[in-house]
Amino acid sequence: MTTSENTHDTARSADRREGKPRPVSAGADEPVEVRLSVNGTPAVLRLPPRHTLADALRDHLGLTGTHLGCEHGVCGMCTVMVDGEAARACLLFACQLDGSDVVTVEGLGRPDDLHPLQESFGHHHALQCGFCTPGFLMSSYDLLSHKPGIAEEEIPEELSGVICRCTGYRNIVSAVSETSREHPEGVPEPGNCAHRALVGRAGGQAAGLPGGAEGVSDTQRADAASQDVEIVLPDSDPTVSVEVTTDLDVPFEKVWRVLDDVHLLATCLPGAELTDDLGNEHYTGRARVAVGPIKLSFTGVAHITEHDRESGRIRVLAQGQDTGGAQTQADLTLVAESTETGTRLQADAAVYLTGRIAQFGRALAGDISRRMFEQFADSVKQAATSGQAPTTPAGAPSALRLVAGTLATRIRRVLRHIGLGKGNSRRGGTPTDGFRQAG
Amino acid sequence: MKAAPFAYVRPTRLEDAVNELAGSDGGGKVLAGGQSLVPVLAMRLARPEKLVDITTVEGLDQLRSTGDSLEVAAMVRQRRVEHDRATDSVPLLRMALPWVGHRELRSRGTVCGSLAHADPAAEIPAVAACLNARITLTSPRGTRQVPAREFFTGAMTTALGSEDILTAIRFPVATDGEGFGFAEIARRHGDFALAGVAVRVAVSGERVREATLTAFGVSDRPVTRDVSTELASAVSASGQDGVRLAARLPEPLADIAQGMVDTDGDAHGSRDYRRRLFVTLSGRELAKAHDRALRGINGDNP
Known about the structure:
Chain A has helices at 7-15, 53-60, 105-108, 116-123, 133-146, 155-158, 169-182, 218-226, 252-260, 262-268, 361-386, 397-406, 408-418, 434-438, and strands spanning 24-26, 32-38, 41-47, 79-82, 85-88, 100-103, 205-206, 240-248, 272-279, 282-291, 294-308, 313-322, 327-338, 343-354. Chain A is α+β, with helices and mostly antiparallel strands and 439 residues long. In chain A, strands 8-14-13-12-11-10-9 form a 7-stranded antiparallel β-sheet. Chain A has a 6-stranded mixed β-sheet with strand order 5-4-6-2-3-7, with helices on both faces. The radius of gyration of chain A is 25 Å and the shape is elongated. Residues 1-18, 204-228, 393-411 and 418-439 of chain A have low confidence and may be disordered. Chain B is an alpha+beta fold and 302 residues long. Chain B folds into 3 domains: 7-53, 2-Layer Sandwich (Uridine Diphospho-n-acetylenolpyruvylglucosamine Reductase, domain 2), CATH 3.30.43.10; 63-172, Uridine Diphospho-n-acetylenolpyruvylglucosamine Reductase, domain 3, CATH 3.30.465; 178-295, Enolase-like, domain 1. Helix content of chain B is 35%, strand content 27%. Chain B has a 5-stranded antiparallel β-sheet with strand order 4-5-10-6-7. In chain B, strands 11-12-13-14 form a 4-stranded antiparallel β-sheet. In chain B, strands 1-3-2 form a 3-stranded parallel β-sheet, covered by helices on one side. In chain B, strand 13 and strand 14 (223-226) form a beta hairpin. The longest helix of chain B is centred in the last third of the chain and has 25 residues, at 271-295. The termini of chain B are far apart. In chain B, 56% of the residues are buried.
């Protein structure tokens, strides 16, 4: 058996480590804070010690690509990269990994730019039911990145750590062999590691957000909210990009007066409500979105990063989380420009959606967002004309029912697709539970 | 398959780790790589009240040659030992490591953890027993050394007391005139062995000075026998011919197998089948090790 290893790779993976774990002393089921880098995104979780990395990834960070089979280290379904080496996520308690760098199958490639191993698995029909595929991909990534140019006859034995019950081993071995031949110097690094929002059903989230993580008390949330929060936008492509330009027959000065007054401006944003001024251009707020039976209520933080009368420009970064585990982040730029007939208002928004909300797909989310900005422009016009909050506050859910109406057919189709059409009895009955309220 | 709740501590000093364990009144367990312990917890075969994670304990990540021995401290992971040049000095350990679990387990599993867990079919305990490596145990009363052959006292049972932490193992470095062999048979690569052998042969010139045979997976612990006499007579009868030597060895080894292989057998292999595996593997590996000792080469391929 060959024991040679690409030592350069080993050194590089060691360099990637974020830092050593911190000392801990926690009672049974007392949450332990764990800092991780997951697919390039920093994440801070507070979990009882017995929670495994697999549970943390799946339940708390929404990364369900890591599958669980036996949960005692035999089947290899949950194989992920930890600090540059493949490991079983079911045999690691998340609390052991404070400061570690984790790459899951979600980080390996992008839907439009797959990793060569993923391409090769597809080409060779190396998956049937697909359950073992994440495990095989991560195990073979580990193999080819540490042992480039491995002898073909060694590959079956090296892949023995993952089980396929469709008995597709022949095709899996072919896929890995071909990738190995095509990348004699080692396979490319994972191609989908970047800052992005991570949200699971059980709470927990990427770092940088105030509150929301499991085990965080309300006091701690308040503390977090009262500090300046750095809003980190994902590096990945936004879920939705909206660009809406509206010509208003109102002079620039009047429009700017609305944009200049944060409280007034907030009343123009559909569903938005300003709840607190944290100072230093930071605000907390709520945003409600109601689309047919779906009602989401995001609480979060907004930070006005640019505010310039000269250029008529305002830039707002915002992020919020819904109790159901949906998360949104937005980068919004408003530019008001004087024209012959009045003012041209341009809104550019990059919206990032995570969690179940993201399953609605780009098109529908884009349509809704666009309509929201059109409403916003109308409200600004009203407020600019009257100098007061718009009379039909855009925040009222009724305003959005209009949007929902125009999209009803499409929503029904999506609901059928994601299996929510008959309601969802699995969710708890909290007062803010949108699905239950929707009846 | 979720572990029962446990308290979790991760101290930075060995003294604190030892005290945490001692203070848990027998309800504590050391967590290093966890690759043997976590499955036991997941199946709730064990419900320790407290896990003492020694990941951050200072000084436990050392892998170093100290003249006549290779010291592997408690937090040194198997994959690191597998690929570190320092391991060249202990060829038997290098030969055995690729057989330990899978790549995905060796990345987290530690050498010392495998010793502390002491599965009778595990590879690293067999290597330790064959070389009679010295195991360091640390407790609130201090540090002591236990020879590996005295360390394993039964299935998953060792000389470790409830207040002891296995902090390091020292493998003797190979010297000139030594040759080694290692082999096992498992139902698939990475499974625990049905039977396996670790072999050390030392020669002076052409004379067999010492031959040690350790078998694993065949009893409740690794079993070690001095087979110098058997090897020496087989060598002289075969006139230094490797092929004839391999053919001569099964006969004396078959007698030895009666004593060494005492497992009752299971669904995967009866006692007699394991005895046959033992005879075949040990004959083959003794011949290889003898050849390597004569030629001064301890590579993978003779």
